[in-house]
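TA notes, week 10

Several of you asked for a full example with nothing omitted. So below is the full record: structure tokens for the whole chain, then the designed sequence directly under it. When grading your own attempts, check the secondary structure regions first.
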């Protein structure tokens, strides 16, 4: 009788740790975390987001092959909450990380003041 082989990879990657979010501008937040580990190998990460203080991120917005992600196209002065999970090639998914929150910066004021009107010369 030959060796018995298993049914494949059934172990999920570790939960991503050290998750942080940093607002870079009025439309961009950068995310980073410590890489997860897996018995076979991590294939990537799923990024989840919600909008508003106290919300729980359940909507997946992107995937990343590395342990960082730049979320662009955001709205100025808004609170965004994120979580991330790792997955492997066999489809095993880790639990979600703890939440990381960031508020996009205020939009730059590019409108000049109005010209004065109604001036009279004395």
């Amino acid at each position: 009788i030959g060796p018995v082989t298993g049914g494949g990879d059934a172990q999920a990657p570790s939960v991503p740790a050290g998750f942080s979010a940093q607002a870079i501008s009025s439309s961009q937040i950068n995310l980073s975390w410590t890489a997860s580990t897996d018995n076979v190998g991590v294939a990537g990460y799923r990024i989840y987001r919600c909008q508003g203080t106290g919300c729980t991120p359940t909507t997946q917005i992107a995937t990343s092959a590395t342990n960082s992600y730049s979320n662009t196209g955001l709205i100025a002065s808004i609170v965004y909450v994120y979580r991330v999970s790792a997955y492997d090639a066999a489809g095993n998914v880790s639990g979600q990380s703890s939440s990381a929150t960031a508020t996009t910066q205020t939009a730059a004021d590019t409108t000049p003041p109005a010209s004065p009107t109604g001036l009279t010369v004395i």
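Strands lie at 17-23, 28-34, 42-51, 59-64, 68-72, 79-88, 100-103. Use that as a sanity check on your answer.
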